[in-house]
Specification:
mainly alpha; flat
């Protein structure tokens, strides 16, 4: 097994980059590691995992702010913003489901003996 390249300061780098809206892929690029190494470090180092979790929230917050401050900008590409939020943060269109009253559960069958 090769020695790890992990350094404790990487946890701070993760949070700082993601605070500015960076993705995990961008963080990996900056740390010069592959995504598998990133996720291995999350399993092996609690502080790194905590930074990743907080960083994802920070990144989503950064992107939300960008969308909010661009609301009045006619040049703002809202479709691109929308797709980014759906793909990176799991945003979804609201799906409403209605219950069809005609599909009520039927009453249980009652059997009677021929003598009744």
């Amino acid at each position: 097994m090769r020695p790890t390249k992990y350094k404790e300061e990487y946890a701070d780098i993760v949070m700082n980059l993601m605070y500015e809206g960076a993705s995990i892929v961008e963080v990996c690029h900056e740390l010069k590691i592959c995504k598998q190494t990133f996720y291995n470090w999350c399993k092996e180092h609690d502080m790194f995992l905590d930074s990743k979790k907080r960083g994802v929230d920070f990144s989503e917050g950064w992107w939300c702010k960008q969308g909010r401050i661009q609301l009045e900008n006619k040049e703002f590409n809202s479709t691109l913003f929308y797709m980014n939020m759906k793909n990176r943060f799991g945003w979804a269109d609201k799906v409403e489901s209605k219950t069809d009253v005609s599909l009520n559960k039927p009453e249980p069958l009652q059997f009677t003996s021929p003598e009744d």
